[in-house]
């Protein structure tokens, strides 16, 4: 807690003087701009994945994956085979690492509204005043043919 307060105090002091700030997040120094944003990435997906154990694919599994994909596998022992097998193992590692992430359950299954706006205000998702756009069943009135609340489409069934 004290370390965070000191870092915040340094950030405020440097911000007021518009001088780039250097602070330590762990053992390494991270150079930041005047707003405290790192100038270079502080981590990478590759670095994160390197901490996970590397899976291995057997030759039979590698061949079977190609069969299921309707592809011809490269000759075993060639550089192309080794490269492709390594790339598949990296993808498996990524999938397995993703499975380890704990995701909190939400109350609704709906996709959240991702727009950024002030809290308490927002755009109503139904009709807005002055917007007379037809929606849902109202659209049927514009169809050239409809029956029982459905669009009627003429098709040539003589084929």
Layout of strands and helices, then pairs:
Elements: H1 2-17, E1 22-24, E2 29-31, H2 45-49, H3 59-68, H4 79-99, E3 146-147, E4 150-151
Antiparallel strand pairs: 1-2, 3-4
Can you give me a brief rundown of this structure?
Residues 116-135 are annotated as: Disordered. Residues 1-6 and 9-25 have low confidence and may be disordered.
Keywords:
mainly alpha; two-stranded antiparallel sheet; flat; disordered N terminus; Glutamyl-tRNA(Gln) amidotransferase subunit F, mitochondrial
Q: Find the count of extended strands (DSSP E, 2+ residues).
A: 4
**Portion in helices:** 25-40%
Which term fits the overall shape? flat
How would a crystallographer describe the biggest sheet? 2 strands, antiparallel
What is the gyration radius calculated from CA atoms? 29 Å
* Strand order across the largest sheet: 1-2
Question: Which structural class is indicated by helix and strand composition?
Answer: mainly alpha
Distance between the termini: 76 Å
**Average residue pLDDT:** 75
- Percentage of residues in strands: 5-15%
Tally of individual helices: 4
Order of SSEs: HEEHHHEE
Give an overview in words.
- The protein has 159 residues and is mainly alpha-helical.
- Among the domains are: 2-42, no CATH class; 46-99.
- The chain is built from four helices and four strands.
- The protein has a two-stranded antiparallel sheet. It has a two-stranded antiparallel ribbon with strand order 3-4.
- A hairpin with a 2-residue loop joins strand 3 (146-147) and strand 4.
- The protein is flat and about 65 Å long.
- The relative contact order is 0.06.
- Residues 1-6 and 9-25 have low confidence and may be disordered.
């Amino acid at each position: 807690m004290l370390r965070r307060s000191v870092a915040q105090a340094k950030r405020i002091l440097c911000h007021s003087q518009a001088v780039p700030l250097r602070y330590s997040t762990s053992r390494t120094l991270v150079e930041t701009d005047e707003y405290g944003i790192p100038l270079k990435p502080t981590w990478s997906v590759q670095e994160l994945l390197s901490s996970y154990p590397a899976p291995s694919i057997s030759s039979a599994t590698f061949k079977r994956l190609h069969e299921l994909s309707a592809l011809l596998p490269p000759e075993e022992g060639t550089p192309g085979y080794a490269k492709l097998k390594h790339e598949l193992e990296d993808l498996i590692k990524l999938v397995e690492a993703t499975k380890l992430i704990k995701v909190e359950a939400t109350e609704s299954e709906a996709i959240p509204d991702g727009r950024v706006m002030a809290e308490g205000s927002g755009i109503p998702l139904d009709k807005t005043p002055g917007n007379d756009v037809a929606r849902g069943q109202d659209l049927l009135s514009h169809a050239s043919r409809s029956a029982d609340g459905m669009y009627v489409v003429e098709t040539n069934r003589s084929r």
